[in-house]
Write a sequence for this structure.
């Protein structure tokens, strides 16, 4: 069983317009690698220097992975991974 | 190219910015996916609680975005206030403005500001000011 990934509007051109895609992996890092193999280019939008890119938030279910184990955060079958733009400025 | 916003929504965010001054205020304005006018103001907590920086609280943001999905609405406008400068995007505002489809609205509560509200499209780091069309 796989993890559901909710894709923000901005990244949907990379997922053929799909809002929700499935991916497999035991950690967020593995899931992103799997996504990138199917939708090339998406990893570069989510990860920078092996950290979550500062312009996005990634959640496993309701939890922001920055406050968990980052890309090493574990996932279980049936989990929902959500990507949202990080909103900030000066 | 213009931002279409209701008078009520605009008054609401001006009021929020005044109340939260000297800290920066922030939030979004949503609209039903089929409607052209941005009407529903959703004030957000400034997680940074700062006079020169704002950020959405990630958990609050997830809850709001899920609610937009359930209501078949979309985020149309991201707004925040500047408390000691003009209503013009800062370098950090531009860096974080990743979505060319969004309106980036900036309010200034600085007494010296020439304009209280300005709206922008930001595309690949380039800033384009747009007209604010207020719907009475």
């Amino acid at each position: 069983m796989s993890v559901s990934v909710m894709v923000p509007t901005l990244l949907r051109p990379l997922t053929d317009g799909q809002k929700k895609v499935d991916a497999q992996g035991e950690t967020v890092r593995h899931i992103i690698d799997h996504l990138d193999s199917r939708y090339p280019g998406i990893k570069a939008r989510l990860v920078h220097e092996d950290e979550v890119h500062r312009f996005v938030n990634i959640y496993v279910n309701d939890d922001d992975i920055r406050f968990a184990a980052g890309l090493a955060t574990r996932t279980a079958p049936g989990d929902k991974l959500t990507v949202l733009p990080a909103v900030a400025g000066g | 190219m213009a931002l279409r916003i209701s008078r009520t929504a605009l008054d609401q965010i001006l009021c929020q910015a005044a109340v939260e001054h000297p800290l920066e205020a922030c939030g979004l304005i949503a609209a039903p996916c089929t409607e052209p006018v941005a009407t529903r103001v959703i004030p957000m907590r400034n997680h940074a609680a700062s006079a020169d920086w704002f950020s959405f609280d990630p958990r609050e943001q997830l809850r709001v975005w899920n609610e937009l999905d359930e209501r078949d609405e979309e985020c149309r406008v991201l707004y925040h206030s500047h408390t000691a400068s003009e209503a013009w995007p800062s370098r950090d505002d531009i860096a974080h403005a990743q979505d060319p489809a969004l309106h980036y609205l900036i309010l200034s509560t600085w007494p010296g500001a020439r304009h209280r509200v300005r709206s922008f499209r930001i595309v690949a780091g380039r800033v384009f000011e747009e007209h604010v069309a207020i719907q009475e």
